[in-house]
Amino acid sequence: MPENKTWTLKSIAKMLGVSNATVSNAFSRPDQLSAKRRQEILASCKELGYAGPNKAAQSLRKGLFNIVALVLPDSVEYMVTDPVASKFVQGVASVLEKNKVNLLLFSGISENINSVSDFVDGFICYGSPRNTELIEQLRLTRKKVVTADFDIDRKASVSIDNENAACEIAKLAIQSPDDKIAVLGLRLLDTELTCRVYDTSNLDIDCSIAHQRFIGYKKAIEQAGVQLSSVGIWNVHENNHHFALMAVKAALNAKPRANVIICMSDLIALIALQEINAMGISVPQDIRVVGFDGIDEALRSTPTLTTIHQNSEEKGIKAAELFINKATHTEKIPYHVVYGKSC
Amino acid sequence: MPENKTWTLKSIAKMLGVSNATVSNAFSRPDQLSAKRRQEILASCKELGYAGPNKAAQSLRKGLFNIVALVLPDSVEYMVTDPVASKFVQGVASVLEKNKVNLLLFSGISENINSVSDFVDGFICYGSPRNTELIEQLRLTRKKVVTADFDIDRKASVSIDNENAACEIAKLAIQSPDDKIAVLGLRLLDTELTCRVYDTSNLDIDCSIAHQRFIGYKKAIEQAGVQLSSVGIWNVHENNHHFALMAVKAALNAKPRANVIICMSDLIALIALQEINAMGISVPQDIRVVGFDGIDEALRSTPTLTTIHQNSEEKGIKAAELFINKATHTEKIPYHVVYGKSC
DNA sequence: CGAGTATACTAAATTTATTAAGTAAATAAG
DNA sequence: CTTATTTACTTAATAAATTTAGTATACTCG
Q1: Which residue from B230, B190, B182 is spatially nearest to B210, judged by alpha carbons?
Q2: Are B221 and B182 within one domain?
Q3: Nucleotides in chain D near protein beta carbons (<7 Å)
Q4: Which of A65, A112, A118 has the highest number of chain B CBs within 10 A, making it the mutation to test binding with B?
Q5: Contacts of B116 in chain A (CB under 8 A)
Q6: Domain limits at A129?
Q7: Contact criterion met (CB < 8 Å) for B115 and A102
Q8: pTM for this entry
Q9: Domain harbouring B132, CATH code
Q10: What is the DSSP secondary structure assignment for residue B189, as one 8-state letter?
Q11: Listed residue (A261, A269, A311) closest to A286, CA to CA
């Protein structure tokens, strides 16, 4: 055998004068051959420098890859930058690591899951991918799919009870039927526009946690006896500084000014607090603010934020476990209210 | 064709009454068949729901996977937590995304690169993997390898000129031959022990950036006329809070107390500043501190940190570009001194 | 001792695709 | 009109494995 050539199962079998099947069995099905023969073969392979069956060929044949694609909501940058998202990745990674499954990062701005679909055992999907075509592709794929903070048909998924959590935090914020409420909601519309939403009857539901949270808010608003038509509902296109600031400014400048600001994420709420501080208005005396997520920064803001805390790492762990265990059901993870000074 | 069956190139070819080769060519080598026939075939495939050749089989045959494994120095957690590391991932990811190459995260505490080796076009290695067996495996692999902040034989690599940078920052800190110097170095020994290193002649060099930086420090120390034997050299096992704090405490409690603290990372330096503040000693009057890396937090510390800044994201970009361009050379990226108030 | 069964192995089919080599027909050149 | 070239395709080998079905040998049991 020339130095340069890499061994294959076939060439090894030929060299050792046994069948392909026997070499394959020596590595993968020990019960199919005698212990003695198996030892001989493994020893020879080691000596010749054959490390074992090629994983790509093995996977093609078996249809098992030991790789799962983590479909990110946005570019990889978002995933390592956003505190909530990065915790989720950690959770997923820790479980996969234990199960010797590899993790492939798949950007939510990619065009097509086809490029990886044939290489992975399935997808773990965190939030709604920015490229919404991916959703349809994920819906159609035959591969296993687990979603988190986001639903695709009736595929396995994990999240908190967003509706109840949203209702709970909104109830804390709303204290009188006369309150002037502003809701800063994520991706309520299918547009980048930072604008007031008037018709809430058929909001864009592609990003279902936003939808669920909104339903919870609405419930709290109705139960408090506030007219929904008096509520200023604002669209925040993406959960980042730029869009959050635009929406916050728009909401704060609207007349009559709201005295209750319900934010669909802590990021939005923290920016709201900053802007309100800058305007010299006092929180919570003049305006009450609530957030959602419970990120660490919310504990350090001035004033500290009243929000819903959810354990994002645990969500990642649960999502990966659902995947590994081939579960098909939906799992709710716990949440709790964090009582800050902003409300 | 029953509903449940997935099409393959073969079954499609049979159905359309053409050869496998023709279908393959329709998708992958348009010049090999007439435009008319090609259109017919592609249209039929679309209609039948065949999305194109299976990528796994394609890759097996071609030996090209469009996946690169990013070998992390530690668990995935480290990569999303550490500010320097996460910037590097961003850089790598952005370039790979542009080139439609997928990114597989490979934990540095994994046992064996074999599990992914047959699935990827190669490895981008960021820092020395914690499981040092991986280094030997990466040395032996036939796959393409690019390293960053770390060298394997003469494989392609990217980093700053650590030796000169370290020498430069150390020179800033050392101002007299009578200075009492403490060096807090990363992974100088092959042990978890936080201890003083007396014999610097054969330090563990598996983590080569630490080694290079140490050589730079030594050069500066010698040029300043300070006896190396008078310098307290301390081993920081890993760049995290736990080990950094242990080493900082040990160094600050040693007699005679050092008035120059040279830290091999900003993380260590920031902890040193905190401890020094807590002891009521003033920086830089009584003790001068310098770091390495130039993370954002170094600009916000009290006092601000004097350190070496390196662009970690650019390092990731360069590493990925070296990989994509099949380069084999080593590339240095620029660095610069950040003048803070700590020195 | 003969029938039935377990063991240890092999041959060949299978997984899904690419590609070099070969062939027939159509076109171009002389 | 013959020969050379190009075009358009097919056949069969190849990539690197797993696995079912089949065969020969050895063993067990009545």
Answers
A1: B190
A2: yes
A3: 7-21
A4: A118
A5: 55, 67, 102
A6: 63-159
A7: yes
A8: 0.91
A9: 3.40.50.2300
A10: S
A11: A261
Residues A247/A223, Cβ–Cβ less than 8 Å: no
Count of domains forming chain A: 3
Q: What gap in Å lies between CA B167 and CA B145, rounded to an integer?
A: 29
Strands B307-310 and B335-338: antiparallel
Strands A330-332 and B67-71: unpaired
Contacts of A59 in chain B (CB under 8 A): 56, 119
Report the pLDDT value the prediction gives residue A121, as an integer from 0 to 100.
Answer: 97
Residue B319 domain-assigned? no
Residue ending a domain, among B125, B140, B159, is B159
Question: Which of A102, A110, A126, A296 would you mutate first to test chain B, the one with the most B CBs within 10 A?
Answer: A102
Residues B64-106: tens digit of each pLDDT: 999 999 999 999 988 888 889 999 999 999 999 999 999 999 9
d(CA B270, CA B303): 9
Final residue of a structural domain among B110, B137, B159: B159
CB-count exposure of residue A45 (10 Å: 0-12, 13-18, 19+): buried
Per the document, the length of chain A is 343
CB B132 within 8 A of CB B108: no
* Residue A222 domain flag: yes
pLDDT at A298: 94
What average pLDDT does this structure show over B128-149?
93
Query: Which chain A positions have a beta carbon within 8 Å of B64's beta carbon?
Result: none
Nucleotide nearest to B60 (CA to C1'): D15
Q: With 90 as the cut, is the pLDDT of residue A132 above it? A: no
Answer yes or no: do B57 and A86 touch at CB < 8 A: no
Distance of alpha carbon B11 from the chain centroid: 45
Which residue spans within B109-220 are E strands per DSSP? 122-126, 144-148, 156-159, 181-186
Residues B301 and B174 in one domain: yes
Q: According to the model, what pLDDT value does residue B206 have?
A: 59
Whether B107 and B72 have beta carbons less than 8 Å apart is answered as yes
B168 lies in the same domain as B305: yes
Contact yes or no for B316/B330 (Cβ under 8 A): no
| A98 shares a domain with A46 | no
**A73 CB-side CA count, 13 A:** 26
pLDDT tens digits, A238-283: 888 999 999 999 999 999 999 999 999 999 999 999 999 999 999 9
Residue B322 falls inside a structural domain: no
